[in-house]
Amino acid sequence: MIDGTGKYLPESKRGIPDSWNSFCKFLGLTALFPSSSIFSGYNAGYLSKDKEHSVPVLSGAFFMVKASAYKEVGGFDERFFMYGEDIDLSMLLKKQGYINLYLPSPIIHFKGRSSIKDSQYVNRFYKAMLQFIDKYYTRTYQLPFKYLLKLSVLGKRSIALSKIGGGIETVNEPATSRIFQYVYGDPRSCKEYLEQDKNSLIQIVSDPCHAQQTVLCQGSEFSFGAIIDYIRKNPDQDYFIHALGVQGVIG
Fold it and tell me: Per the confidence metrics, is the pTM higher than 0.90?
């Protein structure tokens, strides 16, 4: 995967975030030795990005899997919401004897466009890490590192939240820095979305012509099929989807 500027994204192929790989990642050794077979296991940096490889973990941003294999391992673990589910599925497939194959054919991944970087995003992201640790660090000998790793995750979450808190002080913020959203779809779903806590930079507008983003709210009166039809008729917009009963939006 490459980002919108053509930069290679190291998370295109990853190792299993076991105790050692996670330790190197959190301590910064992975960044210091990006090609080391010892320290760069988290992102499998020792494997060439230009060659085909069998790897432990693939990114969910571009992930193709046979339906039969997907069903055999039980599919996505619904405890994970957007973050960590691809690592979990990769590990389930590998455990079942399948190969996760990394292909060097590039695709563009506009990283971070699926979420508004607010406190809700931060909490979801780090919650997924904690869920992953609880699911896979279950053996007795792993317990000391499990709690150390969870403390590291909580510390990083606190730092991330403090940075966001500092970035949304908008007392003297110019109006042009706001994000204007138009909300459309199932009435109950729209109401649910509007009642959620959102980034203070978001301004809801009633006219789609004045919106930078359109939030399509799925529900009984506005199905996913209707959402697809709406997007096809209006392709040149920045869309997010809110599903009834689900916190947040998906880009």
Answer: no
Q: What is the pLDDT of residue 169?
A: 38
Neighbours of 140 (CB within 10 A): 6
Alpha helix positions (H), 35-142 = 67-72, 85-95, 119-136
Mean pLDDT of the 21-43 span: 87
* Other C-beta atoms lying within 10 Å of the C-beta of residue 58: 23
Cα dihedral 68→74→79→83 (10° resolution): -40
DSSP bridge partners of 182: 205, 214
Mean pLDDT across 203-223: 88
Query: How many angstroms separate the Cα of 73 from the Cα of each of 77, 93, 98, 166, 181?
Result: 10, 6, 10, 43, 39
Count the Cβ atoms, other than its own, within 10 Å of residue 142.
15
Main-chain dihedrals φ then ψ at residue 144, nearest 5 degrees = -60, -45
Residue entry with tokens 């050692």: 20
Contacts of 59-64 spanning 24+ positions with Cβ under 8 A: 59/1, 59/9, 59/11, 59/12, 59/13, 59/14, 59/86, 59/109, 60/85, 60/86, 60/89, 61/1, 61/86, 61/109, 61/111, 62/1, 62/107, 62/109, 63/89
d(CA 125, CA 172): 30
Q: What sign does the CA torsion over 177, 178, 179, 180 have?
A: negative
33 confidence band (pLDDT: 50, 70, 90): very high
Give the position of tokens 């995967």.
Answer: 1
Amino acid letter, residue 227: I
Q: What is the pLDDT of residue 25?
A: 83
Q: Who's near 63: CB < 8 A, 6+ residues apart?
A: 86, 89
